[in-house]
């Protein structure tokens, strides 16, 4: 499987992985900043249009925790995700655990590769089984991520 959602390429590198990749006209240091700074995350990591991010906690260090929470503007349909950073290599690589509701935990690796001032960000989520991977895909996660990454491009252009 290989699809493109809102300019973001979505592939399945293995039976247990989902990879999403997008290039931005910005240096890796700026993409990293937008990906790790709560004030900036709240501007783009929103999934489909109309959502808000009232919870955005980032303790950016190995062993540090993160927690994100989203809701509709009226507070309805709220949900959260959380995890722990296991690798933090500024401007190039971030690895963390990810827990979402009753789903099995995942490990997410984000790489930031800059060439000539343009950065390709690739997020690879490794799940416990093919069934877990397929269940995550069935949620429409790639559509929400694609729209979020499209918004990230807009935030980066404004910075």
UniProtKB/TrEMBL annotation:
CDD domains: SRPBCC_CalC_Aha1-like_9. Residues 25-156 form the Activator of Hsp90 ATPase homologue 1/2-like C-terminal domain. InterPro entries: ASHA1/2-like_C (IPR013538), START-like_dom_sf (IPR023393). Belongs to the AHA1 family. This is Uncharacterized conserved protein YndB, AHSA1/START domain.
């Amino acid at each position: 499987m290989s699809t493109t959602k809102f300019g973001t390429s979505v592939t399945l590198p293995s039976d247990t992985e989902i990879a999403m990749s997008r290039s931005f006209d910005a240096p890796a240091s700026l993409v990293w900043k937008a990906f790790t700074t709560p004030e900036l995350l709240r501007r783009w990591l929103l999934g489909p249009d109309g959502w808000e991010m009232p919870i955005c906690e980032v303790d950016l260090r190995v062993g540090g925790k993160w927690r994100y929470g989203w809701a509709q503007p009226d507070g309805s349909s709220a949900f959260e995700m959380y995890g722990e950073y296991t690798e933090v290599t500024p401007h190039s690589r971030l690895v963390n655990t990810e827990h979402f509701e009753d789903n099995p935990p995942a490990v997410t690796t984000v790489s930031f590769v800059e060439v000539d001032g343009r950065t390709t960000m690739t997020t690879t989520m490794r799940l416990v089984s093919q069934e877990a991977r397929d269940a995550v895909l069935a949620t429409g996660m790639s559509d929400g991520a694609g729209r979020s990454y499209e918004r990230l491009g807009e935030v980066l252009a404004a910075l």
